[in-house]
Amino acid sequence: MSTSTDDCIFCRIARGEIPARKLYEDDEIVAFHDIAPKAPVHFLIVPKQHVVNLYEVDESHERVLGRMLGMAGGLARGEGAGNGFRVVVNNGRLGGQEVYHLHIHVLGGNAPLGSGMPR
Ligand code: 5GP
Ligand code: ZN
Question: Ligand 1 within 6 A of 53 CB?
C-alpha cells in the first residue's frame, strides 16, 4: 500500500491545501464535516499523519488513536448529537473503505440509527 501523501485527499485537507468544514484541529488530528453526509450529523476524525487503515497501525499509533476516539463524544455533543451517535471505521475494499487514509466516521442525528450490523 502506498504511503505517498501528495495526492491523498485527507493529507491535503490536513495540510490546508483543500478546504473542509473543520470542527477541530490540533497538531496531530483534524476533524471535519463529511462532504456527503449520511446522517444529520456526520463528521470525520482524521490523524494528520498518513496511515492507510487499521491494518497498518502499530504501537506508535496507539496514542493518537486513543485521542481520536476520546474526542468523539464531546465533538458529537457539540454538533447536536447528544442523544446517541455511532463511530465507524471502514477498512479495505470489503470493508467499504473509499479514502485510503484512516478516519473515524461519527454519525448521529435525530432518529435512531438502528443496530447498524450487517444482516
Ligand atoms: P470511507 O468510505 O473511506 O470510509 O469514507 C470516506 C468518506 O470521505 C466518505 O463519507 C466521503 O463522503 C468523504 N469524503 C471524500 N472526499 C471528501 C472531501 O474531499 N471532503 C470531505 N469533507 N469529505 C470527503
Ligand atoms: Zn493521507
Answer: no
Predicted confidence (pLDDT) per residue in 70-109, tens digit: 999 999 999 999 999 999 999 999 999 999 999 999 999 8
Q: Which amino acid is at 74?
A: G
Cβ of 59 less than 6 Å from ligand 1: no
CA of 104 to the centre of ligand 2 (A): 14
Task: List, in order of start, the domains of the chain with CATH numbers.
Answer: 9-108 (3.30.428.10)
Can you tell me the distance from the alpha carbon of 63 to that of 111, in angstroms, rounded to the nearest whole number?
Answer: 33
Please answer whether residues 85 and 76 qualify as being in contact, where contact means their C-beta atoms are separated by less than 8 angstroms. Answer: yes
Please report, to the nearest 10 degrees, the dihedral formed by the alpha carbons of residues 95, 6, 47, 55 taken in order.
Answer: 40
Query: Could you tell me which residues are beta bridge partners of residue 42?
Result: 107
Nearest Cα to Cα of residue 107 among 47, 33, 51, 46: 33
pTM (predicted TM-score): 0.95
